[in-house]
Amino acid sequence: MAWIEWFNLIIGFFIANALGYGGGPASIPLMYREIVTNHGWTTPSEFSNILALGNALPGPIATKIAAFVGYDTGGWVGSVLALAATIVPSAAALILLLKVLQRHRQSSVVKGMTLLVQPVIAVMMLLLTWQMGESSIESIGIVQSLIIAAVAFWAMQIRKIHPAIVIVAAFAYGGLVIPHLNVM
Amino acid sequence: MAVAWMKSKYLQLAWAMMKTGIIGYGGGPSVIPLIRYEAVTNYKWMEDEEFGEILALSNALPGPIATKIAAYLGYREKGMLGAVVSVLAHILPSGIAMILLLSFVQFLSGAAFIQGMIGAVIPVISVMLGMMAYEFGERAVKGLGIYAGIAFFALAFGLLQGIRLHPAIVILLFLGYGALHLRTVAALKRRKERKHRKRLQRANEKGGGITRGMD
């Protein structure tokens, strides 16, 4: 029986991620449909627990969910299979596509494509910045958000401090100071 | 971080991807500035343009973003094995923590200090994303010229935010036009030159510069 479950894990996680555009968070509803509705690997409340822990831990969300549900359903083998089905197809597609691009790097077609995609990326980043800012104001208030943002900008852009250090500092501040400020 | 044994590409890949996997909160897009920092600024595997290209294509393809980028960076530096090393380093720490910690789920996600940590890191990520947006915008203006740059910027904004077209479609549209862009610019330039030459010729035939302002 394990074979069938393993096979289902591959199919389920492949479908959820092959249809999920826009990265991990965007594929959560699709994963829910495969995991809870189609295959019944977890109950709805278990799924929301997994999601909650997944959000509390760092790292990509889709692979954390795949690792756990795969493990819960089919042991370590299940975990590996669910992870592979999540990652490998889209990663292989990207590698192939970029390999073709690299081969024609000097052509004016590829140069034009590289050029024209920059404004789109800039706008997408801008919109993402805006969304992040909004959710930050919602969770810790505008004053805290602006102070942290200003300090982070000063540290990274002017003092050129490594972003990892800035993030760890923000974690420390958030874990030790913010809970006592009554802003949340 | 430039210790001698860090010279190995595999170790660089594994270390960079592990770092970004551990400090990248919120999944997917929030980790992009961190990966860019490692790939472009820290280890100088590539230029910003190339990273932008990788980002655009991985946005246009389905599936998780961070693992696609990790796989490609690994593949670009060290082939298939590099891709495997990068992806594993990126996902294993959090994946294993997830399996081991599931019993603490209620405690962890409800605890005030976790909420505070997530709250405090969002503004930092916003600043990083904003800085990235500025740099990509700057490069677009430099490559396309100020007027065309702003026009394409406005067009992308209108499509993404105004009519809320799917980002993958916008990227494909711009890539499609981009394939023809340099040829179009060259053709426009040629036409302008031809016109200019013709006008000069006509002016010469009439024997003077008096035609100015007549056409």
Shape of chain B: elongated
Sheet-strand content of chain A, in percent, reads under 5%
Number of helical stretches of at least 4 residues of chain B:
8
The count of DSSP E runs of length 2 or more, i.e. the number of strands of chain B, is: 0
Shape annotation of chain A = flat
Share of helix of chain A, binned: over 70%
CA-atom Rg of chain B in angstroms: 25 Å
Oligomer: heterodimer
Question: Distance N terminus to C terminus of chain B?
Answer: 67 Å
Given the structure, what is the number of helices of chain A? 7
Low-pLDDT regions of chain B: none
Count of separate structural domains of chain A: 2
Q: Tell me the total number of β-strands of chain A.
A: 0
Structure description:
- The complex is a heterodimer of chains A (184) and B (215).
- Chain A contains 7 helices and no strands.
- With 184 residues, chain A is mostly helical.
- Chain A has 2 domains: 2-103, no CATH class; 108-180, no CATH class.
- The radius of gyration of chain A is 21 Å and the shape is flat.
- The mean pLDDT of chain A is 85.
- With 215 residues, chain B is mainly α.
- Chain B has a domain at 1-103.
- Chain B contains 8 helices and no strands.
- Chain B has helices at residues 9-23, 32-42, 48-60, 65-101, 105-110, 112-144, 146-162, 167-205.
- The chains are: A mainly alpha (184), B mainly alpha (215).
- The interface between A and B is large, with 96 and 110 residues.
